[in-house]
Specification:
Rossmann fold, 4-stranded parallel beta sheet, alpha/beta, single chain, 15 helices, 10 strands
C-alpha cells in the first residue's frame, strides 16, 4: 500500500450494522442536523476533522513543485496530527494558485471541517488567503508556515536566552528571509518585546531607502523593524548582532560571517532540508547555540512542535481565532517543557507526547 495514510471505519460492515452505517439510520441523523445544525459535531466526524490545504507553491524549502508533489508532505502532516494529537486531518491539494480561487474553494468545502491548516502556500499570497479565510469562516484558520514556525522559534529563543544570558528584548536580531515565516517570526518577536530586528530578503535589508521588491507585507514589517534604518548587505548588519534566524536559502552564512556577530551568538538556521549554515560550520565560527529544522541535529525548531497542539486546543475550547497572546502562551508552554535548557537542548523533541497537550493548555490558561 502506497502513501502514509488511509481511512479507517469506526464500524464493522455487516448486516447488523448496515442500517446504522447507511440507510435508514443516516436519514435520522441528517434530519436531526437539518433541524439543529449544531448537532453536526456530535453526529459526524466533523468535530475532529482538520483540512490541510495547499497549492504546492512553496513545498518545504524546495519551491513551487505543484499540487501533486506537495501531497507527500500533507500526508506526513496528517500522520503527525493523528499520532501526536489524536486529530483526523485530511490533505486538500488544490490545482490552482490563484488567490481568489483558493479562498473560494476553501470556503466551499469548509462545512466538512472544524479547522483549516494552510500549508506550503507561497508569500505574499498566503497572507491574504489566511486573513480573508479567518475573517469569513467561523472555524479556526492557521497558516502553519507562518505561525507554527514563529511559535517554535520563540520557544527556542526563550530557552536559548536562559542558557546564554541573552535578553531577547534588548538583543540585535537579524532575520534572513522576508516570506511567510520571516515576517511572522518578526511580528511575534516584536509582540514579545524585541525592539532591534533587521529583516533581509534576497535584495538586502528591508529599509526606507529601498524601492524595489517591497510588497505591502514587507513594507508593514519594515515600519516596525530596523530602527536605525540600516540598508545594505547582511555582513555589516551581523556586526553586534546576538541572534541570527534564517528562514531563507542555504549558504547565507559561513563561519566568517558568524565571527562578525557578538561573542557566543545564537544561530537558528532553519532552511529545510539544507540550512543557511551547517552546524559544524556555525560552531567553528563561535556559535554557542545552533538550531535547525533537521531531525538529525540537536535543537530541531520545527512547526511540528506546534500545529497538533494548536488545533487540539482550538477544538477543545471551540475558539475561532488564534491571536497573538495565544501564540506567545503556546511558545512559553513549549519552552517550559525543558526544565534545564542546555546549548544542545533548548527545545522538546517533536515526538514528545507532552508537547501537544502543553500547547493545547495555552487555550485555557
Amino acid at each position: 500500500m502506497a502513501g502514509k495514510i488511509t481511512i479507517k471505519s469506526l464500524f464493522q460492515l455487516n448486516r447488523k450494522n448496515l442500517p446504522k452505517i447507511y440507510t435508514p439510520g443516516v436519514a435520522d441523523e441528517s434530519l436531526a442536523i437539518y433541524k439543529n445544525p449544531e448537532k453536526v459535531g456530535a453526529l459526524t466526524a466533523k468535530s475532529n476533522m482538520i483540512a490541510i490545504v495547499t497549492d504546492g507553491s512553496a513545498v518545504l524549502g524546495l519551491g513551487n513543485l505543484g499540487p501533486e508533489a506537495a501531497l507527500p508532505v500533507m500526508e506526513g502532516k496528517s500522520v503527525l496530527f493523528k499520532q501526536l494529537a489524536g486529530i483526523n486531518a485530511f490533505p486538500i491539494i488544490l490545482n490552482t494558485q490563484k488567490t481568489h480561487e483558493i479562498i473560494a474553494t476553501v470556503k466551499t468545502i469548509s462545512p466538512s471541517f472544524s479547522g483549516i491548516n494552510l500549508e506550503d502556500i507561497s508569500a505574499p499570497r498566503c497572507f491574504e488567503i489566511e486573513k480573508k479565510l479567518s475573517d469569513q469562516l467561523d472555524i479556526p484558520v492557521f497558516h502553519d508556515d507562518q505561525h507554527g514556525t514563529a511559535i517554535a522559534v520563540l520557544a527556542g529563543l526563550i530557552n536559548a536566552s536562559k542558557v546564554s544570558g541573552v535578553d531577547i528584548r534588548k538583543s540585535k536580531i537579524v532575520i534572513s528571509g522576508a516570506g511567510a515565516a520571516g515576517i511572522a517570526i518578526a511580528n511575534l518577536l516584536l509582540s514579545y518585546g524585541a525592539r532591534n530586528i533587521i529583516v533581509f530578503d534576497s535584495k538586502g535589508a528591508l529599509c526606507n531607502k529601498r524601492t524595489a521588491g517591497l510588497n505591502i507585507y514587507k513594507y508593514e514589517i519594515l515600519k516596525k523593524t530596523n530602527p536605525r534604518n540600516y540598508c545594505g548587505r547582511i555582513e555589516n548588519a551581523l556586526k553586534s548582532a546576538k541572534i541570527f534566524i534564517g528562514v531563507s536559502v542555504p549558504g547565507v552564512l559561513n563561519r566568517e560571517k558568524v565571527k562578525l556577530m557578538e561573542k557566543k551568538p545564537i544561530v537558528f538556521a532553519l532552511s529545510n532540508p539544507i540550512p543557511e549554515i551547517e552546524r559544524k560550520e556555525a560552531i567553528a565560527g563561535g556559535a554557542l547555540i545552533y538550531a535547525s529544522g533537521r531531525s538529525d541535529y540537536p535543537n530541531q525548531i520545527n512547526n511540528a512542535l506546534v500545529f497538533p497542539g494548536i488545533f487540539l486546543g482550538a477544538l477543545r475550547s471551540s475558539k475561532k481565532k488564534i491571536d497573538v497572546s495565544l501564540k506567545i502562551k503556546a511558545a512559553q508552554k513549549i519552552a517550559a517543557l525543558v526544565a534545564k535548557p542546555r546549548n544542545d537542548k533548548i527545545i522538546p523533541d517533536i515526538l514528545d507526547r507532552k508537547v501537544p497537550e502543553a500547547v493545547a493548555s495555552a487555550f485555557v490558561s
